[in-house]
């Protein structure tokens, strides 16, 4: 049951980051889950656990890390289309 909460929180954080960085483009629910989970791990490694935790993820570093991951995804997609 824990992994279900982790994936739901990861999807919510990834969708939030996607809406901020690229509101006109969606990566689908799998892309949002991956961006949220990878961003949460990246954020906690770089920033550390700070702020409230939900489903084992520190919320503020997870959002910041997800923003970075989604920004990288958007940039890579832009470069791929430009070529």
From TrEMBL:
Entry annotated with the keyword Transmembrane helix: yes
Looking up InterPro entries in the UniProt record yields: Transgly_assoc
Membrane-spanning residues:
27-47, 59-80
Give the location in the cell: Cell membrane
Q: Which GO terms describe its cellular component?
A: plasma membrane
Reading the lineage from the top rank, the first entry is: Bacteria
Keyword list, A-Z: Cell membrane, Membrane, Transmembrane, Transmembrane helix
Q: How does this protein sit in the membrane? A: Multi-pass membrane protein
Q: Which PANTHER family match?
A: UPF0410 PROTEIN YMGE
Protein family (similarity comment): Belongs to the UPF0410 family.
Give the protein name, as stated in the record: GlsB/YeaQ/YmgE family stress response membrane protein
């Amino acid at each position: 049951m824990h992994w279900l909460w982790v994936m739901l929180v990861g999807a919510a954080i990834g969708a939030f980051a996607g809406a901020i960085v690229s509101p006109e483009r969606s990566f689908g629910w799998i892309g949002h889950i991956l961006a949220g989970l990878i961003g949460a791990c990246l954020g906690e490694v770089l920033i550390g656990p700070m702020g409230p935790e939900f489903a084992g993820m520190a919320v503020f570093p997870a959002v910041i890390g997800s923003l970075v991951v989604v920004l990288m995804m958007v940039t890579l997609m832009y470069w791929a289309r430009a070529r």
